[in-house]
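Give me structure tokens for this 214-residue protein.
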Amino acid sequence: MEFVALRDAHGLTDFDIRRMAALHRALAPSDHAYDIIHTHCEIVARLALSVARACDLTVNERLLAIGGLVHDIGTYQLIKNDGSDGGQLTFKNKYIQHGIRGYKLLKACKYGEDVAEFARNHTGIGLTASMVRDQQLPLPVDDYVPVTTEQDLVMYADKFHTKSDPAEFVDYDRCIRRAAKHGADNARNMGLLIEKYGMPPLGDAAREYGMVLR
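Here you go.
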């Protein structure tokens, strides 16, 4: 599977890329936070594009790329330590709220539902209202699941890269183990997604970005 360059996305312009970067820059409390979160979003966008092309899916590549670039925009509101003191980037306990916060932020910035939902609907492997209620998650009881192929691809690609400090790519076994922490059904669903879409080009991506794959 080819690791697709961001600028190769059909319909995506340099202005789009600069605008998304400027949004991240305006919200980031430090250069360190920007580097980790914006780079993560760029990688997820590229992995999602790579999977879409490898699977020969009919998608809006511009929307897919923009969605990937903003899916984690809400994380800036949940930073505990921004790394400006030389420490690691860390997040607050209610990190699970980053999706809904990003959704509200994008709507406040006048982005449409088609873009804002990438933030809202990418957490985990899709959070249902019953999961929110049964697990007493700190979210309004509702479904937070992808409603388009583009959203599904961003949610999927997101599982193969971390915002840890330093950031890492996540291989098959570790991806399944991470999913299993939230239950056997979650791990099984992750496995089904991998069967559906195939593994993204993690080796090529890790080499290009100089990051560990484990």
